[in-house]
Specification:
The protein is an alpha/beta fold. It has a single domain, classed as Aldolase class I (TIM Barrel, Alpha-Beta Barrel), CATH 3.20.20.70. Helix content is 40%, strand content 17%. It has an eight-stranded parallel beta barrel, surrounded by six helices. Strand 6, helix 6 and strand 7 form a beta-alpha-beta unit. Helix 1 runs parallel beside helix 2, helix 1 runs parallel beside helix 9 and helix 2 crosses helix 3. The longest helix has 15 residues. It is globular. The relative contact order is 0.16. The mean pLDDT is 94.
Length: 209
């Protein structure tokens, strides 16, 4: 099961002026615990600050952990990140793929896409997405703007029809992660599950069982 920690520094406990430091510490813990991907999703940061954050994160994580940048292909391309994750209002997948064909980095550089329907999943796949993130599977505050939870049956439908790995997101807990994998998901992505864990290493061991 792929485990993806999606960052949200503003939800970290501590002074606002120390949020970047606290986030890097959390990224360190997640990487050491065995999380496979860390998606840096700090959309409000300037390009310069985001670049500095991503470079520092890339320098800290072990080889088995991949840093994915949300939305900012330019930042991902110039900082040594392992990929970019695109939302439905981000740069289109096809344009990102075209950019990378002209400026190749690595055959392992990933372009992922967030989708909220079977149709969107198939479209992202046709345009060249290397993986898709589908949700929200369960109710969660961070995905409330996308409407009602999709549910496990819809996740299973997307997984059955997709030819690329599907990562489930939205309200996933340690207890429901197995249900998502049983439905066909290649892994799970979450903010609070990882960011608020009291013992990240124990959580990762539990999820991998």
């Amino acid at each position: 099961m792929k485990l993806c920690y999606v960052t949200d520094r503003r939800a970290l406990a501590g002074p606002a002026g120390e949020q970047i430091r606290l986030l890097l510490e959390t990224i360190d813990r997640a990487a050491r615990a065995g999380v496979h991907w860390i998606q840096i999703r700090e959309k409000d940061l300037s390009g310069r600050v985001m670049s500095e954050l991503v470079r520092e994160a890339v320098s800290r994580v072990p080889a088995g952990c991949r840093i994915i940048v949300n939305d900012r292909l330019d930042v991902a391309w110039t900082t040594g990140a392992a990929g970019v994750h695109l939302g439905e209002r981000s740069l289109p997948v096809a344009e990102a793929k075209g950019f990378l064909r002209e400026r190749p980095i690595s055959a392992e550089f990933l372009v992922g896409a967030s989708v909220h329907s079977v149709e969107a999943a198939r479209a992202a796949e046709r345009l060249g997405a290397d993986y898709i993130v589908f949700g929200p599977v369960y109710a969660t505050p961070s995905k409330a703007r996308f409407g009602e939870p999709q549910g496990i049956e819809r996740l299973a439908e997307v997984c059955e029809r997709a030819r690329v790995p599907v990562i489930a997101i939205g309200g996933i807990t340690a207890e429901s992660a197995g249900e998502c994998v049983h439905a066909g998901a290649a892994g799970i992505a979450a903010i609070r599950l990882f960011q608020e864990a009291k013992d990240l290493a124990a959580l990762v061991r539990q999820l991998r069982c």
